[in-house]
Amino acid sequence: MIRNIPQNDAWISHLSGRMNEAKELGLLAGNDELTLPSAVVFCPSGIGDVLNSEVKPNCPIREIQGIEKSPGWVKRDDLFGEAALWICEKYCSSKQVELFCEAGYSEVGDKVLESRQHIIIGEKPFLNQKISKASSEIISQTLRWGRSWRLLGVVADISSNQASEGVNERHLLFICDAFDGDSIIVTEIGS
Question: Which of 6, 142, 146, 30 is closest to 84 using CA atoms?
């Protein structure tokens, strides 16, 4: 389920901070501005109803749901599949729209990175996928690969440039982490 983010200091500050980090990386252009009223977060059933000023963007979904921590490793549930499906439905007919996201903890030359679709801008690797040629499963996997202590990404129209020239094309959406990396926030970009 998709919900508008609460328009309070915690959520706006989180989104603005991630936007500034994306600008520092070169993922967003200096003149890109987020369209805050368009900002949405993907929520599991039941959480959207309690999404209010008390729920912070870095609060894990399990904590919001009241699920107690259990010892040992626990499979992490996330909403990247739902978000990827939404992105694909929105942009699958656009032939020149691509997803770009920070390559998590990967560095140039990493064997794992070399096996994944990516580009290098400066000395920083970015994962990328052409949305019209990728399934929602591939998009969700790319988002998961990009997740580290944060997730930063853009959906960009590259019809006027080649992807290898950089990510400073016409940006359509900004993507960042929410709920301690279990979900994402998506917002439109204006220049």
Answer: 142
